[in-house]
Amino acid sequence: MIHVGFVVYLMTLKHLKENNLELHFGSIPLGQVPGVEIGDEFHLRAALFMLGLHRQLQGGIDYFKHDGRLLARSIISSGSSRYSDKIGNSQVLIYSGSGTPEKDQKLEYGNLALKNSIDAQNPIRVIRGFEETQSSGCRSSKGRKAMRYVYDGLYLAEKFWRKKNDNGFNVIMFQLRRKQEQPELHLKQVRLRTSITFSDICIEDITSGKEKTPIPVVNTIDEDSPSSFTYSKEMIYPPKYSSTPSKGCECIGGCTDSIKCACAVKNGGELPFNGRGAIVQAKPLVYECGPSCKCPPTCHNRVSQHGIKFPLGVFKTRSMGWGVRSLSLIPSGSFVCEYVGELLKDEDAQKRTNDEYLFAIGNNYYDAALWEGLPNSIPELQKSMPSEEVNEVNYTVDASIFGNVARFINHSCTPNLYAQNLLYDHGDKSMPHIMLFASEDIPPLQELTYHYNYTIDQVYDSNGDIKQKICLCGSIECTGRLY
Ligand SMILES: C[S@@+](CC[C@H](N)C(=O)[O-])C[C@H]1O[C@@H](n2cnc3c(N)ncnc32)[C@H](O)[C@@H]1O
């Protein structure tokens, strides 16, 4: 049997390799990692790696090269009996360098980096590692030994010396001092906000291998698992639907000329994405290049069609059922995922008994605020300005039976994602793809949310009575009602 931790480890490596995320993590600054706070607790080395907290999957010292010399960035101080309950008690940490007990330790690699950091006085993240026995979770695995990692804060390296170990070999010892003006870390008060244990992983990959990056489901709240549905990466169109192909561009080498590129023209004479693939501005409708375009798959105007890039996880929230969070930092403007499901005519969607996973395309397509301020000089967009009255058929996506990870994303009154209507593989403006983009930099492990855009007192049940739902998003700007 393959150990869950090992699967997560492989998943992480696979993901990092495929998405070049090592580079992304490399850009995480020295010192504090956005979104990670003192006392945050982790149960997987892979999680520390993915967050950029400690970029070594095995080594205790994480280091990097700066101006030609190695510097330490973080250390994991494990299994020590020298710490009392109040592990912030002593501001001084004595850390033995890396190496095996049967050989003299050398001042190389991580040890050299730690020594150099004494001169450089750069902040070093300290993560405390503890061994514990597992006892609970959605798949109980009582009695299994596992590690627990707690982020302790930033330290400065002070000095090093050598001493003999019990076998008579040299060990390099380092003294680090905790930086002042940081909250103390009391072991008994360690928050479980970011806790993920082996036994909390209910499903290793809810996509069953359909997405390039596995999406684990984690439950630290109760014994529940998500109710069953069929994971689909793509929208499921009505049976008799035949797509209207959109006219493509002729940019054989890629779309760079915003005057000649037909797709840039459709977007108002500019490409909607910047050089890093981030969307520049929310628009009622965005056109990516598609199958009828001559440009290559690497064209800058093909972003969301390439699918999910950032590692995501489904988790059980305290009050809103299941939710989704990112396992890494998502820069503002990045594509996150599509809202996928069965595409139904509104009247058919009304007949569905489960309305929890409906996304009415019209909800944001006809949002006048999106159309305001668009220059008249964008003829293609002005032509596509939809009107609820003249549009014969309106569509809703139902993700209750078939859907992807987006079906688990909750509403917030102060969301960090927004839904962008987007066309690339067909030209039918009444059924654009619903692509979710980050509207701000999203730190690792923060819940992903978008605004459901319901109009209050405009949602009806099958008897025609107004339905109401209290919003539990918890935002200080919460308006109180989802609908
Ligand atoms: C698309 S699903 C989101 C995933 C859902 N939480 C689950 O457990 O599968 C939409 C449903 O989640 C719940 N929900 C989402 N956001 C909410 C919020 N801010 N307040 C209350 N319930 C919310 C509502 O029951 C809503 O109908």
From TrEMBL:
GO terms for cellular component: chromosome; nucleus. It comes from Vanilla planifolia. This is Uncharacterized protein. Residues 467-483 form the Post-SET domain. GO terms for molecular function: double-stranded DNA binding; histone methyltransferase activity; zinc ion binding. PANTHER family: HISTONE-LYSINE N-METHYLTRANSFERASE SETMAR, HISTONE-LYSINE N-METHYLTRANSFERASE, H3 LYSINE-9 SPECIFIC SUVH6. Its main location: nucleus. GO terms for biological process: methylation. Keywords: Chromosome, Methyltransferase, Nucleus, S-adenosyl-L-methionine, Transferase. The keyword ATP-binding does not apply. The lineage of its organism: Eukaryota, Viridiplantae, Streptophyta, Embryophyta, Tracheophyta. It comes from the Eukaryota. Transmembrane segments: none annotated.
